[in-house]
Structures are given as structure tokens and as C-alpha cells.
Amino acid sequence: MKQYSEHHEYELSIIVPTYNRTKDLKDLLLSILRQVKLPKEVVIVDDSENFRTRDLIEQVLKHFSKKGIFLKYLHNPTRSSTSASRNQGTMHTTGKVILFLDDDVVLEKEYIEEILKTYKNYPNAVGVQGYIINIPKLEKFSLKLRNQLRKMFFLYCLEKDRCRVFPSGENTYPNQVSKVIECQWLAGCNQSFKFEALRNNKFDENLKRYSFLEDVELSYKLFKKHPSSLYMTPYAKVFHKWSKVERLPIELLTYIQTINRTYFFYKHIEQTLQNKIIFIWSSIGRIVFLSLISVTRMLSLKRSLRSEIRYIRIVIKSYIYTLKHLKEIKMGNLEFFNKML
């Protein structure tokens, strides 16, 4: 009876939003089938414009059935956002723990076992993530220098055994982690939560299409409500391919990143004078950092002068556009931009 209750308490459901990435998705599904500890169910939320993903699910369905895993396919024709797809998937799950995966990750075979072990060892846990094993290790001097520059400007950077959110709204991720650590946010490519935590907390559907920062938005919100409740285990290992399939055009992506960063800052960061100065400093730093990267690419002849100047202009224009709509962003209204998506 005790064994049954423990198993029931930590039943796990997987939700995977996907968009025209059948090859990547197949690799992920095969890695799920190889797990030492199998999930209760896998829900695929398909935003694709064709039937290739549906056909793939039909092909692998029998393999999941043999393993006793319920594989469910949902189609989201609106293609509104990753956030909406994650929320839609949540409504069709029954597990006590909900694991959200990107469609371009591959799990090592002990991944689910180690995630559930962390929930068991830390009963206060609201959320748990695994560790992305192909994160750069900063062995080269150039990478260390670049990382230090990002840290100086409170931009996303790597830190040993730390996973936190800066006052700028940017975040850090561990380039080395040797034990289970507490986190302030969980990475969207592999983040899990107890289902109870998701009853009154959803992914922000204001963040359309790519939904940049939707992972930080939800997990940091839960962290503020439940301090010391988010964890990373280095023993649940995942490889993130960062697939180039169906990536957004660089101009649209840049605008989304600038607007969503500003939206996150005003929604979740305490609006003290110090934090506002840090945010401005970080925004300036992002422009400087991206400009330096462009110059480096030009000098190494990887990109043409014209294309790099165009990119720098896009970055600056994205900030000008954001400033024009700052009042709306502060009010949590992104309709001015979302209607164009």
C-alpha cells in the first residue's frame, strides 16, 4: 500500500509544444521511451500547419502503448503562442507532476527518475529542472571575457552553482553544478511543476508566438510566492539542440526579446530607483554587447558589413519602438505589438 501511494503521488505527465519539427520531436520521443522511469502520459500540442507531426504520433503510438504510456495528440490551429500551447496541454493532463519539454531536447535515460527523486527528497519542492549538459564550460579565455562582460551589465550569463534572476530582469544559469541546488527560475526546455502549483498559475499568454521569457515569467512568479521551492538536479541530464528549424526572422525575434524583457522587468521586478538604474544600465549594455559581437563577426569575415550594420540598427530601433510604447508595457498591455504577430 505504501509503495502504491508513493508511486501515485509522483506520477508524471509530459507536455511538448511543437511546430514543424518532426525530426527533432522524434528524437525526443525515442528518448522518452528509453527512460528508466516512464511517464504516465505524454501530451503533444501541435501548432504545425501540416499533418507531419500527427503522422509521426500515429507511427510511434504503438510503441508508447506497449510501454503503458498514454500518448495524446492535440492540434492548436491558432498558433498563438508557446504559452498558450503549454496551458492547453496542462488542461489535458492527470499527473501529479507536469514536465514541460521543448521539442528539440533529448533526455538521458535516468532523467525522469532523477526529477522524481528530487521531489521525493525535497518535499517542499514546487518545481524541479534537470541540467542542460551542452552549456558552454567557459574554458576559452574569449568565452570567459564575454561572460564577464555580460555579468557586468546584468545580462544573461553563466555562474557556477547559481540559477538566479538579476534586478535587471535578466537571469543566470550554472555552467557547472555539482549538487542539487535551489533556483530562482527554471529553464523552459525542461521544467517541471507540481500540478497543484499550476491550478492558479498559468503561462502568460500575453507573450505571443515564440513567448520569449515565458519560462522565467512563470517560474520566478512561483519562486516569489514560494521561496526556496525551486530546484535543479544535475543528475537529470538533458541535451538541448537549439534547433534552427522554424526560427523567427532576426528582426521579429529582436523586437520580441526587447519588448518581453521590458515587460518582465515592470511586471516582476521591484520598482526601486536602484533597480530602474540597473535595468537602464543593462539595456545599454545589451546594445553595446550585441554591437561588439557584430564587429567581431565582421572582423572574422563571418558576416558582411552591410548585414551587421543592419542588425545593429534593428537592435536600436527595437528599443526606440519599446520606449514609444513604454506606458502600455508598464500597464501589462502588449496588444500594440501582438496584433502584428
In short:
The protein is α/β, with parallel strands linked by helices and 341 residues long. Helix content is 46%, strand content 16%.
How would you sum up this structure, described in words?
With 341 residues, the chain is of the alpha/beta class. The chain folds into two domains: 2-135 and 174-240, Spore Coat Polysaccharide Biosynthesis Protein SpsA, Chain A, CATH 3.90.550.10; 250-338, no CATH class. The protein is 46% helix and 16% strand. The chain has helices at 2-9, 22-33, 52-66, 82-90, 111-121, 141-152, 195-198, 214-225, 250-268, 273-299, 305-324, 326-330, 335-338, and strands at 12-18, 41-46, 70-75, 97-101, 105-107, 127-132, 157-158, 172-173, 181-182, 190-194, 230-240. Strands 1, 2, 3, 4, 5, 6, 9, 10 and 11 form a nine-stranded mixed β-sheet that branches. It has a two-stranded parallel ribbon with strand order 7-8. The N and C termini lie far apart (52 Å).
Unreliable runs: 1-8
At CATH level 3, the topology of the largest domain is Spore Coat Polysaccharide Biosynthesis Protein SpsA, Chain A
Number of domains: 2
User: According to CATH, what is the class of the largest domain?
Assistant: Alpha Beta
| Strand-residue proportion | 15-25%
Radius of gyration: 20 Å
Shape descriptor: globular
Tags for this entry?
globular; 9-stranded mixed β-sheet; 46% helix; 341 residues; alpha/beta; single chain; 2 domains; Spore Coat Polysaccharide Biosynthesis Protein SpsA, Chain A; two-stranded parallel sheet
SSE topology:
Layout: H1 2-9, E1 12-18, H2 22-33, E2 41-46, H3 52-66, E3 70-75, H4 82-90, E4 97-101, E5 105-107, H5 111-121, E6 127-132, H6 141-152, E7 157-158, E8 172-173, E9 181-182, E10 190-194, H7 195-198, H8 214-225, E11 230-240, H9 250-268, H10 273-299, H11 305-324, H12 326-330, H13 335-338
Parallel strand pairs: 1-2, 1-4, 2-3, 6-11, 7-8
Antiparallel strand pairs: 4-10, 5-11, 6-10, 9-11
